[in-house]
Design goal:
Blueprint: H1 14-22, E1 26-31, H2 45-60, E2 65-67, H3 90-107, E3 111-116, H4 122-135, E4 139-144, H5 155-159, E5 168-170, H6 173-183, E6 194-195, E7 209-210, E8 213-214, E9 232-234, H7 240-263
Parallel strand pairs: 1-2, 1-3, 3-4
Antiparallel strand pairs: 5-9, 6-9, 7-8
Helix pairs in contact: 2-6, 2-7, 3-4, 6-7
């Protein structure tokens, strides 16, 4: 059996980790959830998609990236009306992500990326990334894999066929296509159907949602209150070919992000107090003399 590729973090030895730190490799942690995705998709969509994108990116730049095991459980409390969904309390999720990031920073990695696969994880990832950056000598960012499809402004207009907003919201055209490409044998193709979001149908100027955009005051409430099957989007327009294009585009942009973020010099911090503070910063943030090396 061939050895695992050099970018699979959990297959490294501890001397390999030292070498990866010296090489300036960027750890990418897929963050997903186990939650319902309608009658046609398995519960692990939000895990399979970001890891699939990360692995495809790693094939492009194997010498610059490490792909960590997926954080499989996320913040999904609003989806608990559908059987199978597993919810991790938001405080536990944030704490877990911070622990992962701080562990990586302790070992010497200076740039860390959380690659998200579940929309409601994003505020939690943002807070975790901010704290890792403030409380260690590393820099950390969070990114949803689907947002990578917006970097090239020409991609989505030529890719998307579904209505906007809503056609690519949840288990719709985008997620179903990506899953068809990454793990198509587990898609119940005979159950792929369009599912409308009821509050999108109100045509409010403020409350509407799509995976790739949202109104200025989006409403996040119980999922079962605005979809009867758990499908929010045009799953019937999905295809493996679309999934291949989307995953490869997201991977291409992730590889570019890894390279640019990995090479970016940290900004210098400046102390403006006069006289200087006589105590450490609050919330366990690092004092300036323990800050990021310049």
């Amino acid at each position: 059996m061939p050895a695992a590729p050099p970018y699979i973090y959990e297959k490294l030895t501890w001397p390999d980790v030292n070498d990866a730190v010296k090489a300036g490799k960027v750890p990418v942690i897929p963050v997903g959830s186990i939650e319902q995705h309608g009658p046609h998709l398995p519960l692990d969509v939000d895990c399979v998609c970001p890891r699939g994108v990360a692995l495809h990116a790693a094939e492009l730049i194997p010498e610059k990236i490490l792909v960590l095991p997926t954080q499989v459980h996320g913040y999904t409390g609003h989806v608990m009306d559908f059987p199978g969904t597993i919810n991790l309390h938001y405080e536990n999720l944030i704490a877990t992500l911070i622990d992962i990031g701080k562990s990586l920073a302790y070992h010497g990695f200076k740039k860390i990326i959380f690659l998200n696969g579940h929309g409601s994880n994003m505020p939690n990832i943002d807070l975790a990334a901010r704290r890792i950056t403030l409380e260690t000598d590393a820099e950390c960012i969070g990114c949803a894999w689907w947002n990578l499809l917006t970097v090239d402004e020409a991609f989505l207009p030529r890719w998307r066929e579904s209505y906007f907003p809503g056609g690519c919201a949840h288990a719709g055209e985008l997620e179903t296509s990506a899953y068809l490409y990454l793990d198509g044998d587990n898609v119940r193709r005979d159950k792929m159907a369009d599912g409308r979001i009821t509050y999108n149908e109100e045509q409010s100027d403020f409350h509407w949602v799509d995976l790739l955009a949202a109104g200025s005051a989006p409403l996040v409430t119980w999922t079962s209150s605005y979809t009867d099957q758990g499908v929010m989007g045009a799953a019937d327009l999905a295809s493996e070919e679309k999934g291949k294009a989307a995953v490869e585009e997201a991977a291409r942009q992730l590889a570019r992000l890894v390279e640019s973020f990995g090479n970016r010099k940290p900004d210098a911090r400046t102390e403006h107090h006069d006289p200087p503070p006589t105590m450490d910063p609050p919330w366990d943030q690092r004092p300036m003399d323990e800050g990021r090396p310049q």
